[in-house]
Write a structure and sequence with these properties.
2 helices; flat; mainly alpha
């Protein structure tokens, strides 16, 4: 999918997530970010959706 099409489809979701995260204290989101493992092992994804 070309970048322009990708942004047309998923850009609004990214904007909304940003609007929601802005409501939290930056210290709270920073602490939460340190606990993210960077993998998707706990998500029910299909093989083609996995990052590894």
């Amino acid at each position: 999918m070309p970048a322009a099409q990708f942004m047309a489809v998923f850009g609004p979701y990214s904007q909304r997530a940003g609007q929601i995260l802005e409501r939290f204290d930056p210290a709270v989101t920073g602490q939460a970010a340190r606990h993210v493992a960077g993998d998707d092992s706990e998500l029910p994804l299909r093989p083609e959706e996995r990052t590894r």
